[in-house]
């Protein structure tokens, strides 16, 4: 790596139609996601470009908050139909060799033993490339799909997640790494003295252990977290190997990273072992005008944009945004759902009408528009100012978008020595911690 400031690249994917919004999904692309082949092609392309990892988003409900019906969510394909991302990992792992794979799994819904076992198994199937995007989930409507009346309150969900992490990490450690001795002379497959019950008993969980799989190849999977609230960031800085943030603008990004690193230090961790990635998107063209035209082509019609923005916000906060006056400022609501996302929305809403905010709403730290050369320059400057550690690309997913990233932007970043050209390890965590 020739640059003093290399950074990491990753992609945020959904296991559903490549893009949402009426102007974005096409019959052709929409037909290719259900069997996983779109995702296989995308992840292969990312690996060729030496991306660190891909995150697969998840939730488990069809929201009916906005106007009290499923209409807007389903009409625009905002959250569903969506497949379970965990089985997809096997397929993606089979066709790749180096890229990290991070499905989203909820501490509110997976019993800890089930998650620990599934993740350990997948770390073997992927030969050490498994991650876990730890979410606590945000919607009571999802809880009702699992037989509960509601989720625990926001801050308590993080207290429960704390216990959850203590338990699953003990389960992963319940086998010493060399427990499978394969001693043919003594006829011992596994040395029972190296496998330990965990006998966990906390406020929320009770579990005997040990795990009945082998311990994960990486010891534990790469832990990823994206909570933006104070409790969320505290939790993430204690556990996560990588944290996704979406503060807008360089100053806020820089302050956000400093906060995460201070929190990590306060818990005795080396902050360099916790990589902060910023959510961004990019419109890449042969000229700036070409890139701007691509962005315009993706902009939904105003009436659709309002439904999409308010439908999404309603879904994650469980506040019906259709009840607010569009041409007036938004009265500040509160939520037990996604607090970070609501806070960002309210920050944007200061002094503006709800219509204006909805028409301009996006959830990115930065949106790059330009040629590969100009965007590479902007990314370089931004990372130098912020201090690290990388970018998580999101945006309207399509084959063209992924090709723009991997075949146009990445070669330019590589030419400048800003990102890796090849992986140095076959293990996900080693690659993440390489710089
Ligand atoms: C980039 C990004 C990706 C996220 N992906 C998911 C996801 O796939 N599933 C989910 O339930 N929550 C997801 N979240 C939500 C967070 O994990 C977290 O639950 C949410 O921000 C609320 O936590 P907070 O109140 O601490 O901000 C995501 C958040 C961000 C910023």
Detailed description of the structure:
This protein has 435 residues and is of the alpha/beta class. The protein has 16 helices and eleven strands. The strands form two sheets. It has an eight-stranded parallel β-barrel, surrounded by eight helices. Strands 5-6 form a two-stranded antiparallel sheet. A hairpin with a 4-residue loop joins β5 (200-201) and β6 (206-207). The longest helix is centred in the middle third of the chain and has 19 residues, at 154-172. The protein is globular and about 75 Å long. The termini are close together. It binds flavin mononucleotide. The site of flavin mononucleotide has 23 residues, from β4 and α12.
């Amino acid at each position: 790596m020739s640059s003093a400031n290399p950074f990491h690249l990753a992609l945020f994917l959904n296991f559903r139609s490549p893009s949402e919004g009426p102007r974005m999904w096409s019959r052709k692309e929409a037909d290719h996601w259900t069997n996983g082949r779109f995702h296989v092609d995308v992840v292969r392309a990312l690996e060729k470009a030496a991306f660190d990892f891909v995150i697969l988003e998840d939730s488990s409900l069809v929201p009916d908050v906005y106007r009290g019906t499923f209409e807007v969510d389903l009409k625009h394909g905002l959250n569903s139909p969506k497949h379970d991302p965990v089985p997809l990992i096997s397929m993606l792992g089979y066709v790749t060799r180096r890229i990290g794979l991070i499905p989203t799994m909820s501490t509110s819904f997976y019993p800890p033993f089930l998650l620990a076992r599934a993740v350990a198994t997948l770390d073997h199937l992927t030969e050490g490339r498994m991650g876990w995007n730890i979410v606590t989930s945000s919607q009571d409507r999802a809880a009702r799909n699992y037989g509960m009346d509601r989720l625990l309150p926001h801050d308590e969900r993080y207290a429960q997640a704390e216990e959850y992490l203590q338990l699953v990490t003990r389960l992963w450690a319940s086998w010493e790494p060399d427990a499978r001795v394969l001693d043919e002379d003594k006829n011992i497959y596994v040395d029972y003295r190296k496998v330990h019950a965990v006998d966990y008993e906390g406020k929320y969980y009770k579990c005997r252990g040990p795990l009945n799989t082998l311990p994960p190849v990486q010891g534990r999977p790469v832990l990823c977290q994206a909570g933006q609230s104070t409790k969320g960031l505290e939790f993430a800085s204690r556990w996560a190997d990588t944290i996704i943030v979406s503060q807008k603008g360089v100053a806020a990004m820089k302050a956000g990273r400093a906060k995460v690193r201070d929190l990590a230090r306060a818990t005795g961790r080396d902050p360099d072992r916790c990589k902060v990635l910023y959510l961004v998107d990019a419109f890449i063209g042969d000229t700036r005008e070409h890139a701007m035209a691509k962005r315009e082509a993706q902009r939904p019609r105003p009436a659709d944009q309002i439904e999409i923005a308010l439908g999404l916000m309603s879904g994650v906060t469980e506040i019906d945004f259709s009840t607010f006056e569009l041409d007036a400022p938004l009265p500040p609501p509160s939520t037990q759902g996604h607090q970070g996302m609501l806070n960002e929305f309210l920050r944007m809403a200061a002094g503006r009408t709800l219509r204006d905010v909805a028409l301009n709403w996006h959830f990115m730290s930065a949106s790059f528009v330009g040629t590969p050369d100009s965007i590479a320059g902007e990314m370089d400057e931004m990372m130098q100012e912020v201090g690290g550690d990388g970018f998580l690309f999101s945006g309207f997913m399509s084959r063209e978008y992924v090709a723009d990233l991997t075949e146009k932007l990445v070669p330019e970043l590589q030419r400048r020595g800003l990102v890796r050209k090849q992986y140095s390890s076959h293990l996900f965590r080693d690659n993440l911690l390489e710089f």
